[in-house]
């Protein structure tokens, strides 16, 4: 049974709907598509609507169930005949907030969840259109390619083949445990969700030509945890050669951030995983073997969860692990030394990331000052001077600002500066368009997703439509050529010296001093 939780900072679709800022439009009809596409596992057929063919629920790996739980993904079984890829596959098991709207539910859930979806405007398999592969966010705990926000139709209409995917989440995707490392031929533990992403990218590389995509022009992009995943792939070696360029939307990097700790050391992760398993009653050399027989929901429902958004992200437990293999070292160190994949890159953040991610901090002034001293050490006096707080309300405001500035903006500028030394086609942005001015959320975490994907059922206001057009054109132009500028859009390459970035406000403006 699914256990539901109240989580006030889930994707803000319900807020937008209630505010009347976006409208639900009538859905266009779909028709079966008679053109089947051959993949390595067999033929698939999809649907056709409004100039775009959609192939949904294509398995890119075998179900990670039974003995395949907590193991690297393996290829899916072959099938005979033509598989009807006309409905989304099940989402990976995850906790569902009690106040989640119908529009943002992940849909049916099952441990058999390693599916991807393809939207293509190509009329034949030899068009060689640029390919964009999206990795969803959700704190490595939530999300699915089936969510309406990630519908690929609108981007596909811009002339790209759009792919999104599911990957294992929470304890099923990121449990690290000494016994798992012992049974791994590379002594890896955790990161099964990241290995799923790598398997999906290999599937795209090997199969996308049949959908009219160019396997040599693949752009990977992701938001939040998906953006952090992109940074991990840039820093590691497992997926090099599977993509040509990357886009990171609000992807945190720091192993020890001011408020976000998005990556764990292997020792810390395995120590926690062992304790977590013992808390469920599984200890000893056969703990993992016995846990592979436990119902998936027993494990998912035991995921630590907090009603405070700040506590939830600050104490995230199931997350990427520096395992010495897929993540060979601390990604921050790799970027510092310039050893990452030197591909063209767009990276950026929203101007008010912390307004939803750092809610309910629950610190008084004394607690705030202690927190800053603990996390900033010798720099604490400078931080307290820049972010002073004399009341609990001011503490809340400053913690939101610090998360935005340190965990997101500083990380993006750091990565952009490192990448620019390796590839001139590096571009930095800030998304500042405020969709809900009366809410005081500002340009909140994840807001840009509405403008990048612009799913068919969502119609923004006229100003928002212009922002969406600009972003979609820039993203797809980058996918085609590695350069997002063009048309009426000026977007200079970033260097630490020029500090140039593009501000996506009501009108795009080039600024400096990120």
Q: What spatial form do the alpha-carbon principal axes imply?
A: globular
- Would you tell me the overall average pLDDT? 91
Low-confidence runs: 1-28
Distance between the termini: 46 Å
In this structure, how is the largest beta sheet organized?
A: 12 strands, mixed
Rg, rounded, reads: 22 Å
Percent of residues in beta strands: 15-25%
Cross-sheet strand order for the largest sheet: 3-6-7-10-12-11-13-14-17-18-20-21
Total strands: the figure is 21
Structural class: alpha/beta
Helix content: 25-40%
Number of helices: 17
In short:
The chain is 32% helix and 17% strand. The chain has helices spanning 13-19, 153-156, 170-174, 178-183, 192-207, 225-235, 266-279, 287-291, 296-300, 309-314, 331-336, 354-357, 365-376, 380-386, 392-420, 448-453, 462-481; strands spanning 4-5, 23-24, 31-32, 37-38, 43-45, 47-49, 52-59, 82-84, 96-97, 115-120, 129-135, 161-165, 213-223, 245-249, 264-265, 321-322, 345-350, 426-431, 458-459, 500-504, 508-512. The strands form five sheets. It has a twelve-stranded mixed β-sheet, sandwiched between helices. A three-stranded mixed β-sheet has the order 4-5-8, with no helix packed on it.
């Amino acid at each position: 049974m699914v256990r539901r939780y109240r989580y006030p900072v889930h994707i803000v679709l319900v807020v937008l709907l209630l505010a009347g800022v976006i409208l639900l439009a009538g859905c266009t009809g779909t028709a079966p598509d008679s053109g089947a596409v051959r993949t390595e596992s067999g033929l698939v057929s999809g649907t056709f609507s409004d100039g775009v063919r959609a192939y949904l629920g294509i398995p890119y790996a075998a179900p990670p169930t039974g003995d395949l739980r907590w193991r690297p993904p393996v290829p899916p079984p072959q099938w005979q005949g033509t598989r009807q890829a006309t409905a989304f596959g099940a989402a990976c098991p995850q906790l569902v907030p009690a106040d989640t709207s119908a529009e943002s539910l992940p849909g049916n859930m099952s441990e058999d969840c390693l599916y991807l979806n393809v939207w293509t405007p190509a009329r034949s398999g030899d068009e060689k259109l640029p390919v964009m592969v999206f990795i969803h966010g959700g704190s490595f705990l939530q999300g699915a390619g089936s969510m309406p926000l990630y519908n690929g139709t609108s981007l596909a209409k811009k002339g790209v083949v759009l792919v999104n995917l599911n990957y294992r989440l929470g304890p099923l995707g990121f449990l690290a445990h000494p016994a798992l490392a012992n049974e791994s031929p590379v002594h890896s533990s955790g990161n099964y969700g990241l290995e799923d992403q790598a398997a999906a990218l290999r599937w795209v590389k090997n199969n996308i030509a049949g959908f009219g995509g160019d396997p040599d022009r693949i752009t990977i992009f992701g938001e939040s945890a998906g953006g952090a995943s992109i940074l991990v792939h840039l820093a590691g070696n497992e997926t090099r050669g599977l993509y040509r360029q990357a886009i990171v939307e609000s992807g945190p990097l720091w192993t020890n951030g001011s408020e976000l700790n998005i990556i764990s050391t292997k020792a810390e992760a395995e120590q926690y995983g062992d304790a977590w398993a013992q808390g469920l009653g599984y200890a000893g050399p056969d703990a993992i073997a016995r846990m592979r027989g436990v119902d998936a929901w027993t494990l998912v429902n035991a995921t630590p969860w907090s009603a405070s958004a700040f506590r939830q992200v600050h104490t995230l437990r199931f997350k990427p692990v520096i395992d010495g293999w897929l993540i060979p070292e601390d990604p921050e160190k790799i970027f510092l030394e310039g050893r990452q994949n030197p591909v063209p890159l767009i990276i950026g953040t929203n101007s008010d990331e912390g307004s939803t991610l750092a809610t309910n901090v629950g610190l008084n002034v004394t607690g705030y000052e202690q927190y800053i001293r603990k996390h900033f050490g010798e720099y604490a006096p400078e931080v307290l001077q820049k972010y002073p707080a004399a009341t609990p309300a001011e503490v809340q405001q400053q913690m939101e600002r610090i998360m935005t500035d340190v965990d997101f903006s500083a990380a993006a500028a750091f990565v952009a500066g490192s990448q620019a030394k390796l590839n001139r086609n590096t571009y930095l942005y800030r998304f500042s368009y405020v969709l809900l001015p009366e809410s005081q959320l500002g340009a909140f975490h994840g807001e840009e997703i509405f403008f990048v994907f612009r799913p068919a059922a969502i119609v923004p206001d006229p100003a928002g439509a212009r922002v969406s057009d600009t972003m979609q054109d820039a993203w797809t132009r980058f996918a085609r050529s590695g350069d997002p500028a063009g048309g009426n859009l000026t977007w200079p390459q970033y260097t630490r010296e020029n500090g140039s970035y593009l501000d996506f406000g009501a009108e795009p403006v080039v600024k400096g001093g990120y």
